[in-house]
Design goal:
Blueprint: H1 31-41, E1 46-50, H2 57-67, E2 76-80, H3 90-97, H4 107-115, E3 121-125, H5 131-144, E4 149-154, E5 164-167, H6 180-185, H7 187-199, H8 210-219, H9 224-231, H10 239-249, H11 260-277, H12 280-289, H13 298-304, H14 315-324, E6 332-334, E7 337-339, H15 344-353, H16 356-376, H17 386-393, H18 397-408, H19 414-423, H20 425-430, H21 434-447, H22 453-468, H23 474-487, H24 490-506, H25 510-527, H26 530-544, H27 549-566, H28 569-585, H29 589-606, H30 611-626, H31 629-645, H32 657-671, H33 673-684, H34 687-696
Helix pairs in contact: 4-5, 7-9, 8-10, 9-11, 12-14, 12-15, 16-18, 16-19, 18-19, 19-21, 19-22, 21-22, 22-23, 22-24, 23-24, 24-25, 24-26, 25-26, 26-27, 26-28, 27-28, 28-29, 29-30, 29-34, 30-31, 30-32, 31-32, 31-33, 31-34, 32-33
């Protein structure tokens, strides 16, 4: 299967020293290493690129992957691990890179099933801080698949049987006795020249500066990140003065060989030197920005970083100063704004420098900011900007994970972390990240015992996600209800009754479940919580579709009217879907088709991978009812591709199973087995965007 997701995630790895300068020619040298990687990948299923931070492991892996996709039928997928600190999030990160939006607790088994016969190169970048977990996952994936290959980058080998290791050396440096032309050709010098030209246009190696450039390249051991940090200084000093500064600064003797220890010392000394060249304000901001694993925009930096000697009005200028010094990446466009990122090695150095006296206050501001953000961007709201909220949250998720880790590191802050995880329940659902959501909820629930609103709402959120994953929600529902009554909190009680209704319906108690959901709706209305009313109406409409279609249509139309009144586009699409399912059960396929076409357009714009396969399924049914059996088979194939990506199928959904089977059988009888199979396969080849376009065409 080929999923139409971008192959590369946003850059952010420690070795990717080139990503900040997208206007330069780009990759420098490494022909020998590229040839070695290509040769080794022809002989092994697991190749690990090892080396010190800043040596260029990530950049090499990305370059090789750009060259090799034609060798892999399903292409190349990159999993960026630098922003993940919890090994329980490793498998969900791999799933997300593969376009799988998980709904199963056994995600590793799902990954193996998905990759079983696929010819694909999986790049695991920055494995060193999750070494044991990466080794276990890699071993399981390779053992359970036949054609998968893995290219890993790490400061040390994974230690998996069959692994081939390729140490990534520093860039070649000039040799004693090299002439000017030879010096200019050495890869370390070529990189320095390219970077220097961005700060001093027209810079080149000539007879006047060749010896100084050669000394500089040797002094920096050919380490790409160290070379880039040094090149920044050419804006204000000559090459000769720069070399003299380095001689005074670096403690590693120039004649020391390029051993691992020496390279560590060189890079460390270069960063210390860069840190000292920053102004006091720039140093303080560098330390504080190191908190942001997922990068940061100016507005967030101004909200979190000021205080204790740093004024808000100075943040923008200081950020630009760090960009000029290549400490902070140039702004990457994202939505209506732009984000700056730090390489992981630079982030780690900044965190080390952060004084303990300032760290505590920064920690509180950071947690407070992301607590407010998650409240502001909740998508379970009957409001106009739901899709914008989803897009706003996506780049912030690595930073939210940092906030959650900070909260769960201290018992006193654990309730705040649990509330953050609970408020994101709808984001976890719509984006398909149910396993990650439940991971944080389970972690928080383990740290927040006793009676509290935070625990009750954590149980509520976990119960809803458990239901969507096919797990029983009854235990969460019982404890949530008991806590709500003990607390005497009417708001929590309304949510607890809602979850009790979901649990009853999932156990087959239609009348009891719907009665509880109606009670929850009444309680939410009494408190004026229109958003919770919307969620309750959707659950009631969807559950009642096959059992009580008349009541389901009433619930759905009530929700549609509520959404239209409040201009809630994404919520309205869910309401229309529920209405469409009720209309289908009532035999009105024309109105069902009209509803689903409208829903498909909205869910496509929102990139709702959980909703889209359900919508394409129903459009296949209506095509079959029209007698357009080839179209029905093709849409079933397109939906199958998306079902596979979310690790589900119509057979698992009671409101889809029967109609799916009937549609497939009728189309197969009408077309014949061979023609049906051909049309179905055509649908699986459409990919997401073309499948939606095809579904929206006039039938």
């Amino acid at each position: 299967m080929h999923v139409e997701d971008p192959i590369w995630n946003a850059p952010g790895a420690e070795e990717a020293a080139d990503w900040r300068h997208t206007d330069t020619p780009g990759f420098v040298g490494r022909r020998h290493e590229i040839a070695q990687v290509r040769r080794l990948l022809a002989k092994t299923r697991l190749l690990t690129l090892t080396g010190v931070g800043g040596v260029g492991k990530t950049r090499l892996a990305r370059r090789v992957s750009e060259i090799l996709p034609q060798r892999y039928r399903e292409g190349v997928r990159l999993v960026e691990l630098a922003t993940i600190d919890d090994e329980d999030l490793l498998a969900p990160a791999v799933a997300a890179a593969l376009g799988i939006h998980d709904r199963t607790p056994d995600l590793v088994a799902l990954l193996i099933e998905h990759l079983a016969d696929k010819q694909l190169l999986l790049v695991l970048d920055n494995c060193e801080h999750l070494l044991g977990a990466c080794a276990r996952l890699v071993e399981q994936l390779l053992r359970g698949t036949s054609r998968l290959q893995i290219l890993a980058t790490s400061r040390q080998s994974l230690g998996v049987y069959g692994e081939r290791v390729l140490p990534v050396p520093s860039l070649p440096i000039p040799r004693p006795g090299d002439r000017t032309r030879d010096i200019a050709r050495r890869e370390a010098v070529r990189l320095f020249t390219e970077r220097a030209a961005t700060f001093r246009p027209g810079f080149r190696v000539d007879a006047a500066n060749a010896r100084a450039v050669a000394r500089l390249a040797r002094r920096l051991d050919g380490i790409p990140l160290a070379i880039e940090l040094a090149a920044v200084r050419l804006r204000t000093t000559s090459v000769e003065d720069l070399v003299n500064e380095l001689d005074q600064r670096l403690e590693v003797p120039a004649e020391v060989g390029p051993g691992t220890l020496a390279r560590h010392q060189t890079l460390r000394a270069t960063m210390e030197w860069s840190f000292e060249l920053c102004s006091p304000g720039e140093r303080r901001l560098w330390e504080r920005l190191s908190m942001f694993a997922g990068g940061v925009d100016v507005e967030t930096a101004e909200a979190v970083c000021p205080g204790q000697g740093l004024d808000c009005e100075d943040v923008l200028d200081l950020m630009m100063g760090l960009v000029d010094k290549s400490i902070l990446g140039v702004a990457e466009p994202h939505g209506a704004g732009a984000r700056h990122r730090m390489l992981e090695t630079i982030r780690a150095y900044g965190r080390e420098q952060l004084p303990a006296a300032e760290a505590e206050a920064l920690r509180e501001r950071y947690i407070g900011h992301y607590r407010r953000l998650t409240e502001r961007v909740r998508v379970d709201r009957v409001e106009p900007d739901q899709i914008d909220r989803m897009r706003l949250l996506k780049p912030e998720l690595p930073n939210v994970r940092v906030a959650l880790d900070l909260c769960f590191a201290r018992p006193g802050d654990a309730p705040t972390g649990l509330m953050i995880a609970s408020e994101l329940w709808a984001n976890w659902l719509v984006t398909g990240a149910l396993s990650e959501g439940r991971h944080w909820l389970k972690r928080g629930l383990a740290l927040v015992p006793g009676s509290s609103v935070a625990r009750a709402m954590g149980l509520w959120a976990d119960g809803l996600l458990a239901h969507y994953q096919g797990d029983a929600a009854a235990a969460d529902a019982r404890e949530c209800l008991a806590l709500a009554r003990q607390l005497g909190d009417e708001a929590v009680l309304a949510f607890a009754v809602q979850l009790s209704g979901v649990a009853a319906l999932s156990e087959g108690d239609a009348e009891g479940g719907l009665a509880l959901l109606e009670e929850a709706r009444t309680r939410h209305w009494a408190r004026g919580d229109v958003h919770a009313v919307g969620v309750t109406l959707y659950l009631a409409a969807l559950f009642a579709a096959t059992m009580r279609p008349d009541r389901a249509a009433e619930y759905g139309e009530e929700l549609v009217a509520l959404c239209e009144k409040r201009n809630a586009t994404l919520f309205r699409a869910y309401a229309l879907y529920a209405v469409g399912m009720a209309l289908w059960e009532q035999g009105d396929w024309q109105q069902t088709e009209a509803r689903m076409r409208e829903v498909a357009a909205c869910w496509s714009a929102a990139d709702d991978r959980w909703g889209l396969p359900q919508c394409l399924e129903v459009l296949a049914w209506t095509a079959g009812t029209r007698g357009r059996y080839e179209r029905a088979a093709r849409l079933l194939g397109a939906a199958h591709l998306l079902w596979e990506a979310v690790a589900s199928s119509p057979a698992r959904l009671p409101y889809q199973a029967g109609s799916h089977q009937e549609c497939a059988e009728r189309a197969r009888r009408a077309l014949g087995a061979q023609a049906f199979t051909a049309a179905f396969r055509d649908g699986t080849r459409l990919g997401l965007s073309r499948a939606v376009t095809y579904a929206l065409e006039e039938p």
